[in-house]
Amino acid sequence: MKKKLRELADYVGGVVSGDGEVEISGVASLDEAQPGQITFIATPKYLRKLETTGASAIIVSKEVTTAGKPLICVANPQLAFVKITSLFFDQPYQPGGIDPVARVSPTAQLGKDLTIYPYVYIGDRCRIEDRVTLYPGVYVGESSTIGEDSVLHSNVSIYTGSMIGKRVTLHSGVVIGADGFGFVKDGKKNVKIPQVGSVEIEDDVEIGANTTIDRGALGKTIIRRGVKIDNLVQIAHNVEIGEDSIIVAQVGIAGSTKIGSNVILAGQVGVVDHVEIGDNVMVGAQSGVGFNLPANQGYTGTPALPHREYLRTIAVWSKLPEMKKTLNEIEKRLKKMEELFSSEEKEK
């Protein structure tokens, strides 16, 4: 497929600077681009590469208006590049039918235009809606639902009674609806708390490889519309994650935690049980959340502190050895002064 630069500019709502008739046949990174391809510059520090990249055209911010090559000037270069990449690479859906090696319960309700690969298992009373793709090794437990246009990659496991919305993507190894980790002590013995709830994944959610989302002990674990979850994330029972939040790799969220909308938890964040994180919160990498976090702030560290407070705190850390040395010297001087005063008192 080839597109003229002016066509791409119209598609992303940008303005052409230079020759709008240049033909573009693909996309590439700034350093690897070749003639016929388009690339982008998202931050000013890479503007020096405008003249050296091999690309035929470059997507830039509106502040950049001239260069030695044709440009598309937009408000958000990265977003425009993503849209153009999708234009070149997204393929129309072509249903592949149900492979005869798949095991589909006779009581399952199946929609139209499905693609079900070999060795898929669909249990009793499941509902699989139109244009769903299930790759080899997918397990769908009884009474589960998968919404229209969803894609479940190889070896995804959907436990009994789980609800998957429309346009959901689950990458390989995802487990939805396993038992939550709940036990009560009977003396020294650990007695399992029955996990009889469910999981609900709303529309337009994407979940990365080998992420696990536990069913509620009672009630539901809920992942709201538009949430994006990275690989290797653990979400415990009865957690609720609000719309359009982003959960990055290796995050662990303990049970009954409520996370607001548009929240970002960076890599390896740990969240204890029964806390609430407000809307629009950003928590920095490797932070530990041990209490409620009010909305519309950034937090960093363990325990998580407002980011500016955290920066003031770490500025002191490097000085702690010197401060300790100073305190030890002051302590010694005070001790000598006390001894001196004590001897003077005795002489009186």
Can you offer a commentary on this structure?
This protein has 348 residues and is of the alpha/beta class. The chain folds into 3 domains: 3-89, 3-Layer(aba) Sandwich (Udp-n-acetylmuramoylalanyl-d-glutamate--2,6- Diaminopimelate Ligase, Chain: A, domain 1); 97-308, Hexapeptide repeat proteins (UDP N-Acetylglucosamine Acyltransferase, domain 1), CATH 2.160.10; 318-348. The protein contains 4 helices and 40 strands. A 12-stranded mixed β-sheet has the order 8-11-14-17-20-25-28-31-34-37-39-40. It has a 10-stranded parallel β-sheet with strand order 9-12-15-18-21-26-29-32-35-38, with no helix packed on it. It has a 9-stranded parallel β-sheet with strand order 10-13-16-19-24-27-30-33-36, with no helix packed on it. It is flat. The N and C termini lie far apart (103 Å). The mean pLDDT is 94.
